[in-house]
Design a protein that fits this description.
The structure is a single chain. The chain is α/β, with parallel strands linked by helices. The protein has two domains: about 180 residues, Glycogen Phosphorylase B (Rossmann fold, 3-Layer(aba) Sandwich), CATH 3.40.50.2000; about 180 residues, Rossmann fold (3-Layer(aba) Sandwich). About 45% of the residues lie in helices and about 15% in strands. The chain contains 16 helices and 13 strands. The strands form two sheets. The chain has a seven-stranded parallel beta sheet, sandwiched between helices. The protein has a six-stranded parallel beta sheet with strand order 10-9-8-11-12-13, sandwiched between helices. Helix 1 packs across helix 16, helix 2 packs parallel to helix 4 and helix 6 crosses helix 11.
Length: about 375
C-alpha cells in the first residue's frame, strides 16, 4: 500500500513528530511504502522513507498554515497514494492522527467565545471541522480516550470513524538492571550530590506544559529543601520568559535549561520527581516514560494519560481546577517519598503488565483496516 504522511513541521523532539516517524517506520517494516511531505524538517531524515520539504511564506501563522495545508495535500495527491495521512488538521485527508486536544473546547470552555470570530480562531476551527465534522470522510486515529466524547460533543463525529490506539512509548525508557548505576553516573556528570534533589520537567512547549507552575513550586519549597533542590528543564522552546520568572523568584541558580536532547532516559533516571503540571495535554507520553523508569510523577488531571499515574501508585494527579498550593504540597511529599529501588520495582511491574508500547504497530493495522474498507481489499 502506498501512503503519504503530511506534517507541517518536523523537529526531533516533538511528541507528534516522533509518533509520525515511528508509525512511518512501522509501516515500512510491514511492507508498505511511505512518502513524507512537510513544510520544514530539522534533523536527520529516516532511511528508506523519502521526504519532500515544501516551505511557504505568509504574513501570519494561520495564513501560512492554510497555504501549507493546500500545498501539502496537492503534493500528496500527485503521488497517487492509497491513503493520505495527516498529522496536522487539514481538509481532504483520508486519515488524521489526533495528537492535539479539541480546539473548539478550548475556545468555548477555556477562553472567551467571542474569539471564534477572529481570523486565527476561525481558521483553526474550520480545519478541525474539516476533519471531525459529521459530513467529513476522514478516519481518525485517537490517542486520548477522554477526548473522544469531547470531539463528539462539538462535531457529532460517528463512532465508526474514530479509532482508539494504545500508548506507544519506546521500550528503552524501561529501567533495567543497571538503572541505579546509570542514575549515579548521570548525577556525577552534572555535579549533583547524593543528598540533593532534582525536579525534572520534560517537553517542548513550556507554557502548555506548565513550566511557570513548576518554577513557582520550586520557589515555594521550604528554604532548607529549596537550597539543595534543582529544577532541570529538557525541551525545545524559548526559555527567556521562564528565566526571568526564576530570577524574580530568586531561584535562577537552581534552574537549568538543557534544550532538546536525545538522552531523555538518562535524565529520567537521574531525577527524583517528574513535574508535569500541564494546562492542556492530549496524552502526556512523558508520564508513562517516567513511570517505567521508576520516577514518581506529579501531574494534572487534564493529561490524557494521568489515570495511569493514579492507578499504578506512581505519583500524584492534581484535580481541576488547578491550585498552586496543591502542587506545592504534592511536590514536597514526592521529594521525600519511597526509595528509588521501590519505585523501580513498581515501574517494572507497570511496564510488564500494561499495553503502553504498541501504538505504531496498532496504527499501521488500523490504516490497513481503513484501506481495506475503502478499496474492498488491502491494496
Amino acid at each position: 500500500m502506498r501512503m503519504v504522511f503530511c506534517v507541517f513541521r518536523y523537529f526531533p523532539y516533538g511528541g507528534l513528530q516522533k509518533d509520525m516517524r515511528r508509525i512511518a517506520e512501522a509501516a515500512v517494516a510491514a511492507g508498505h511504502s511511505v512518502h513524507i511531505v512537510c513544510g520544514s524538517w530539522e534533523g536527520e531524515k529516516p532511511d528508506g522513507i523519502p521526504v519532500s520539504v515544501l516551505p511557504v511564506e505568509a504574513y501570519s501563522n494561520h495564513r501560512r498554515d492554510a497555504l501549507l495545508a493546500q500545498k501539502l495535500l496537492q503534493a500528496a495527491r500527485s503521488l497517487k497514494p492509497h491513503l493520505v495521512v495527516g498529522f496536522n488538521r487539514m481538509p481532504g485527508l483520508d486519515v488524521y492522527y489526533a495528537a492535539d486536544s479539541c480546539f473548539a473546547a478550548k475556545v468555548f470552555e477555556d477562553r472567551l467565545p467571542g474569539l471564534r470570530f477572529l481570523p486565527r480562531y476561525r481558521h483553526h476551527l474550520a480545519m478541525e471541522k474539516a476533519v471531525f465534522g459529521s459530513d467529513s470522510r476522514t478516519d481518525i486515529l485517537m490517542i486520548s480516550p477522554p477526548q473522544v466524547p469531547v470531539f463528539q460533543q462539538y462535531y457529532q463525529t460517528p463512532d465508526a470513524r474514530l479509532h482508539l490506539l494504545p500508548p506507544g512509548i519506546s521500550r528503552d525508557r524501561v529501567a533495567n538492571g543497571d538503572a541505579l548505576l546509570r542514575r549515579a553516573t548521570m548525577r556525577r556528570q552534572w555535579d549533583v550530590a547524593e543528598h540533593e534533589k532534582v525536579i525534572l520537567v520534560v517537553g517542548s512547549g513550556f507554557r502548555t506544559k506548565g513550566l511557570d507552575r513548576a518554577i513557582q513550586a520550586l520557589a515555594n519549597l521550604p528554604e532548607g529543601i529549596r537550597r539543595t533542590t534543582r529544577l532541570w528543564v529538557v525541551g525545545q522552546d524559548d526559555a527567556r520568559a521562564f528565566e526571568r520568572q526564576a530570577s524574580r523568584l530568586n531561584v535562577a541558580e537552581h534552574v537549568r535549561f538543557f534544550g532538546g536532547r536525545p538522552d531523555v532516559p538518562e535524565f529520567l533516571l537521574a531525577a527524583d520527581v517528574l513535574l508535569h503540571p500541564a494546562y492542556r495535554e492530549n496524552t502526556g507520553t512523558v508520564l508513562l516514560e517516567a513511570m517505567v523508569s521508576g520516577l514518581p510523577v506529579v501531574t494534572t488531571a487534564v493529561c490524557g494519560y494521568a489515570p495511569y499515574v493514579r492507578e499504578h501508585n506512581l505519583g500524584v494527579v492534581l484535580e481541576e481546577p488547578f491550585r498552586q498550593a496543591a502542587l506545592d504540597e504534592a511536590l514536597l511529599k514526592q521529594l521525600s517519598g519511597p526509595s528509588r529501588g521501590i519505585l523501580l520495582e513498581r515501574g517494572r511491574a507497570f511496564a510488564a503488565n500494561a499495553d503502553i508500547f504498541s501504538l505504531p504497530e496498532r496504527a499501521v493495522e488500523t490504516l490497513e483496516e481503513v484501506a481495506t474498507q475503502r478499496y474492498g481489499t488491502l491494496p
